[in-house]
Amino acid sequence: MEIMRIVVTGPVGAGKSSFIRTISEIEVVDTDRKATDETAALKAKTTVAMDFGRLHFGKNVALHLYGTPGQERFDFMWDILIRKAHAFILLVSSHRPQDFRAARRILAFMRHRAKIPMLIGLSHADNPAAWPMEEILLALGYLSPHHRPPTVPVNALETASVVNALAALIEAYARDQVAELNRLNKDAFI
Amino acid sequence: MKITGYLSEFSLGEIFRFLAQGQKTGCLTIKPVEAGEEMTVLPLASAYYTFFHHGNIVASTTSLDHQELQRLIAKRGWLRIPTIQKLAQLCPPRATLGLCLKTQGALDGEQLKLLFKQQVLTPIPHLFSIKDGWFEFDANHPLPYEEMTGLTASPMEIALAGLRLLRDWTPLLDKLPLPSSTVISLLQGEVPYHLHQSEWQVWEHIDGTLSIEQIAAKLNQSVLDIQKICFRFMVVGMVEEVAAITTVDAVATRPEHEMDALPITEISHSFLQGLLTFLKGKKDAA
Question: Which of B246, B259, B283 shows the shortest C-beta gap to A163?
């Protein structure tokens, strides 16, 4: 069975649970109440809740989605999730500047633990109080427009929008794979 | 481009960092929700306007009548307002009033420095004492050349000064780095700011391994004091906070093999292609 694991993270209320529910083929599992599949291993000896969703798209191939616990407290569950993930999505509410600090803290936490492809999903981008994408990226610490992760608006309740975000992340992962391969080839050549 | 919010959500220090790092040009308006008694240095005003040019502060006013600099000059007895207005007519368009008067020999460089200090350097740090207020940054607001001396100040330096002056940290307590967090230096070279002795002591202990509470213990200072200093460092872009894993008993007792229960393997090209095709189909069906 080939499984790709994607972590969906972000401050409280950014739409993580909705994102996973919208795309998951199974009812999203809250591991605090029920653990199945791989989540059983993650669940051991913890009381921390997280969302789990799944998408089978062929024989022996599946995408697993893990939502980080909502509260801004980084416990060992986060550590496991990140180190076992292939990529992650950071969801940020565009209209809640008070969340940018938490989002920045999450980013720093992730960056110092795993070098994996990521995507920023901006929810509530159509809200009248929403900050423009450029300004949010700046507030998150991305000063150079040339060194920024892919960023897309996300409506966590709409399938097409969630699919768009996932596809953009998969493409980023594929690009990262190619770049890594090129780097290895170059090193081997040298 | 306009952005708005409340200082309780996005603090003034964070706004200054945002405007400086983004090299923004425009007007930052702050309207105190409660112009409290802490505003002792500034006259009470319903709004404060700070003007930025390419990320630097160029002027600060409490009205938009474009005459505050003239009043400051007249109050010091250097020039009468009618004289200033007459001389200003000789200025080329988009010339700052301060430099224009200097070019015509009406004011000298030292006088401009004093004006800038009175207009910007002294009052703005006290804005950091506002407990809560509404803010708006308008990038389309034209620069008020009549209010500008021609001098500029770094928002980071001003923020550092403002946060050092701050006595009541209550509104910022939930924005401070956590005691268990580590702070990591973001600087490549030397520290670009004049640090106080207590700040230097903390800076010398920032090695990417010690948590804030560990630094506090080493320096025999309160954790809160170290949090405040680290917050200042964060605001001026010297460090970033990296949160620690919360330690719980379960971690200590959890056998190592459980962590390895999930294998981490490279995803194949065919998997990625298959997934993208599947997602496209799902999108078309939606």
Answer: B283
Are residues B142 and B202 located together in one domain of the fold? no
Tokens of B205: 């202990």
Q: Does residue B13 sit in the same domain as residue B127?
A: yes
pTM of the model: 0.85
Q: Which of A61, A86, A159 sits opposite B282 (nearest CB)?
A: A159
B189 Cβ contact partners less than 8 Å away, ≥ 6 residues apart: none
Tokens of B31: 């309207």
Q: What is the pLDDT of residues B247-263, one digit of tens each?
A: 654 444 443 434 446 66
Q: Please check whether residue B105 lies inside any domain of the structure.
A: yes
B81 and A CB contact within 8 Å: no
Q: Which of B23, B174, B262, B270 is best to mutate for the A interface (most A CBs within 10 A)? A: B262
The token pair at A95 is 């209209």
Q: Are B39 and B173 in contact (CB under 8 A)?
A: no
**How far is A80 from A84, CA to CA, in rounded Å?**
6
Q: Are strands A2-9 and A87-93 parallel, antiparallel or unpaired?
A: parallel
DSSP H or E stretch at residue A55: strand A51-58
C-beta neighbour count of A8 within 10 angstroms:
31
For an interface test with B, give the residue of A64, A131, A171 to mutate (most B CBs within 10 A): A131
The ipTM (two decimal places) reads: 0.84
Measure the CA angle with vertex B199, ends B194 and B200; round to 5°: 75
Residues 216-275 in B contacting A (C-alpha not used; CB under 8 Å): 240-246, 248, 250-251, 253-254, 258-259, 261-262, 264-269, 271-272, 274-275
Overall average pLDDT of the A56-72 stretch: 86
| Same structural domain, B160 and B20 | yes
Instruction: Quote the CA–CA distance of B14 and B11 in Å, as a whole number.
Output: 5
Identify the CA nearest to B247 among candidates A43, A67, A79.
Answer: A79
Low-confidence ranges of chain B (pLDDT < 70): 34-44, 246-264
Structure tokens at A167: 């596809």
CB A75 to CB B245 under 8 A? yes
Please report the domains of chain A, with CATH numbers, ordered by start residue. 2-189 (3.40.50.300)
Is B171 a member of any domain?
A: no
Q: Say yes or no for a CB contact (<8 Å) between B267 and A86.
A: yes
Domain end: B137, B165, B193, which one?
Answer: B165
Domain of residue B216 covers 176-286
Q: Check residue A190 and give its pLDDT.
A: 63
Of B142, B165, B188, the residue that ends a domain is: B165
